C-alpha cells in the first residue's frame, strides 16, 4: 500500500468511529492533507451527533479572577504576580466576587469559572468559604472551575490529601473542574514552560481521582510553546488513557499560546493550520471524549468558525469577563448576537448550552434571536473601576 493509500485507510477508519493508535494519529497529524483530515473529523462528528449534527453550541459564562498572586511562576503566563510584588498583586474580596456572580446571572450566564493564581495563603478553606457563599447567593450558577494544579496547591497549603481537598470543595459547591493547568502533559515541554507545576502524570492522577469521586471535568491543551508534534499527540494519548478508565472528561479544548508580556517572549507560536489539524486529530483520536471545543478567543473568529468544519461541535462562550489569556495578548472579543451569527454563518444552528451540554435554547429562527447588547465579552476588565462593566445593573437579590 502506498503511504497515501495507507493514510486514507486510517482516515476512513477514524471517520467511521474506529479507534486509531497514537502512531497513526501522529502520521495523520503530520502528513494527511488538511482538507481530508477535516472531512474525516467532520464525518466522525456527524456520526457521533446523528440527529443533532446541524447544531453547534455555546455557553454564557464569566471568568472570575480572584487573585493574580501566584507562587508557581509559569513562563508562558502574563497574568501572575509574585507574592513579594505587592504593587502588581491583587486579591478580590468576597463582595466583589459576588457582584460579578450577580451580573452573570442578570445577563443570562449559567456558569462561572473561578480562576486565579496559586496564592501562598489559599488552602482548601478559602475555596470552601467562597464556593459556599456563591452557591448560597446564586444557587442557579454552576461553578465549573479550577483544575488539578489548584487541588495540588490547596491540599499542600491545608496539609490534607488531594482526595480530601476534592471532597470538601465539591461539598462546598464546586460542580466540575475546568481542567486548568493541563498545559502540556508530557514531561519535557511541561518542565520547559511550567517547571514548578506538578508533573503531567500527577495532573492526570488528580483528574482521575476527581472523576472517581463523581466530579467531572473538561480537559485542555496549550499549543505553541515549542513542543513537538509527537509531544502534542502524546498529550492526547495521556488524556485518552485516563478517559478509557473514567469517562469523566466531558470535552477537550485546545488553545494557542499568546506571546505578549511573558517570559517565553513569543519564541514560537502554533500556526492556524496546526490548530485546525489539532481540532481534527482530537476529534478522530479522542473517540471517547464527546465534545471538542474550538477557541475563537485565541485564534480569531473566522478560525473559530472553521473549527466547526474540522470536528468541533462547540464554540466556547460569550465570556463576560476574561483576564488571563487576554493579558498575554488575545484581543478577540465577541457578544451574544455575534457568536450566534458566527455559528449560523458557519452553516450550523446555534444553541445555548448548559455546562453539561444540554441545549437551553436552539436559535432555529433568526427572527427570535436575543438582542441584549450587554451580553458581551470584557477582556482585562480588572482595569474597570469596581470590577464591573455594568454599574447600571440593578442586581438580583440573593436567592
Ligand atoms: S498559569 Fe496559573 S499557576 Fe502558572 S503562573 Fe499563571 S496563574 Fe500561576
TrEMBL record:
Q: What class of enzyme is it?
A: oxidoreductase
Q: Which InterPro entries match?
A: Aldolase_TIM, CofH/MnqC-like_C, Cyclic_DHFL_synthase_mqnC, F420, FO_synthase_su2, rSAM, rSAM_sf
Task: Report the EC code(s) recorded for this entry.
Answer: 1.21.98.1
Under catalytic activity, the entry for this protein gives: dehypoxanthine futalosine + S-adenosyl-L-methionine = cyclic dehypoxanthinylfutalosinate + 5'-deoxyadenosine + L-methionine + H(+)
For this UniProt entry, which residues form the secretion signal? Answer: none
Residue numbers binding S-adenosyl-L-methionine: 76, 183
Cofactor binding note: Binds 1 [4Fe-4S] cluster. The cluster is coordinated with 3 cysteines and an exchangeable S-adenosyl-L-methionine.
Return the PROSITE patterns for the record: RADICAL_SAM
- State a single Gene Ontology molecular function: 4 iron, 4 sulfur cluster binding
Single Gene Ontology BP term? menaquinone biosynthetic process
The keyword Iron is assigned to this record? yes
Binding of [4Fe-4S] cluster, residues: 70, 74, 77
NCBIfam families (UniProt xref): CofH family radical SAM protein, menaquin_MqnC
Instruction: Give the UniProt family note.
Output: Belongs to the radical SAM superfamily. MqnC family.
Q: What is this protein called?
A: Cyclic dehypoxanthine futalosine synthase
Q: Which organism is it from?
A: Streptomyces boluensis
Amino acid at each position: 500500500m502506498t503511504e497515501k493509500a495507507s493514510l486514507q485507510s486510517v482516515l476512513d477508519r477514524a471517520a467511521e468511529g474506529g479507534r486509531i493508535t497514537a502512531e497513526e494519529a501522529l502520521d495523520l497529524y503530520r502528513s494527511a492533507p488538511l482538507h481530508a483530515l477535516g472531512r474525516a473529523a467532520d464525518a466522525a462528528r456527524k456520526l457521533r451527533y446523528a440527529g443533532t449534527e446541524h447544531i453547534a453550541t455555546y455557553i454564557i459564562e464569566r471568568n472570575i479572577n480572584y487573585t493574580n498572586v501566584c507562587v508557581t511562576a509559569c513562563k508562558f503566563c502574563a497574568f501572575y504576580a509574585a507574592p513579594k510584588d505587592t504593587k502588581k498583586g491583587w486579591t478580590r474580596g468576597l463582595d466583589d466576587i459576588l457582584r460579578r456572580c450577580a451580573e452573570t446571572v442578570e445577563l443570562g450566564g449559567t456558569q462561572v469559572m473561578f480562576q486565579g493564581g496559586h496564592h501562598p495563603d489559599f488552602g482548601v478553606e478559602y475555596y470552601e468559604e467562597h464556593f459556599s457563599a456563591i452557591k448560597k447567593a446564586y444557587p442557579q450558577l454552576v461553578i465549573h472551575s479550577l483544575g488539578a494544579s489548584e487541588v495540588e496547591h490547596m491540599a499542600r497549603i491545608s496539609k490534607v490529601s488531594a482526595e480530601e481537598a476534592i471532597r470538601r470543595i465539591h461539598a462546598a459547591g464546586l460542580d466540575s473542574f475546568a481542567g486548568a493547568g493541563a498545559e502540556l502533559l508530557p514531561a519535557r515541554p511541561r518542565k520547559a514552560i511550567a517547571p514548578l507545576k506538578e508533573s503531567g502524570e500527577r495532573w492526570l492522577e488528580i483528574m482521575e481521582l476527581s472523576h472517581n469521586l463523581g466530579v467531572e471535568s473538561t480537559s485542555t491543551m496549550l499549543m505553541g510553546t515549542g513542543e513537538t508534534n509527537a509531544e502534542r499527540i502524546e498529550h492526547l494519548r495521556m488524556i485518552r488513557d485516563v478517559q478509557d478508565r473514567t469517562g469523566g472528561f466531558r470535552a477537550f479544548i485546545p488553545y494557542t499560546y499568546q506571546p505578549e508580556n511573558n517570559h517565553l517572549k513569543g519564541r514560537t507560536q502554533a500556526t492556524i493550520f496546526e490548530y485546525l489539524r489539532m481540532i481534527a486529530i482530537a476529534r478522530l483520536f479522542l473517540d471517547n471524549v464527546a465534545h471538542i471545543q474550538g477557541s475563537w478567543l485565541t485564534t480569531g473568529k473566522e478560525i473559530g468558525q472553521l473549527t466547526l468544519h474540522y470536528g468541533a461541535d462547540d464554540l466556547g462562550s460569550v465570556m463576560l469577563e476574561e483576564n488571563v489569556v487576554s493579558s498575554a495578548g488575545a484581543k478577540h472579543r465577541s457578544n451574544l448576537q455575534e457568536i450566534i451569527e458566527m455559528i449560523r454563518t458557519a452553516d450550523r444552528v446555534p444553541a445555548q448550552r448548559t455546562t453539561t451540554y444540554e441545549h437551553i435554547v436552539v436559535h432555529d429562527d433568526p427572527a427570535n434571536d436575543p438582542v441584549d447588547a450587554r451580553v458581551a465579552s470584557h477582556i482585562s476588565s480588572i482595569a474597570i473601576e469596581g470590577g464591573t462593566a455594568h454599574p447600571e445593573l440593578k442586581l438580583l437579590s440573593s436567592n
